[in-house]
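Supplementary Text 2. Reproducibility record for the structural model of the 86-residue chain.

All settings were left at their defaults, and a single model was retained for analysis rather than an ensemble. We include the record here because the model underlies the residue-level annotations in Supplementary Table 4.
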Amino acid sequence: MDNLNPLLIAIVPALLTYLGTKYKTQSEREQQASSAWKQLYDETKERMDDLQKQVEMLSEQMDEMKAKIGSNSRLILLKLNTVAIA
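Retained model, structure tokens:
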């Protein structure tokens, strides 16, 4: 029984140190995973915002082209009418 006390005195702190290190490592991994997910979310949001801007710009360009096509078709119709009358 006397030999058991020194053994317990040596094992208990080592065991507590091991458990503390294991908990700390797990906590660090969870924190890194959380950080990675946040970074992924931020990058995805940035890409989506960029894509939205591109869609808006393309929509404006399409509207401009439709307006040009509309005015050009009116000019063509006017020229055809003028030629047909003459």
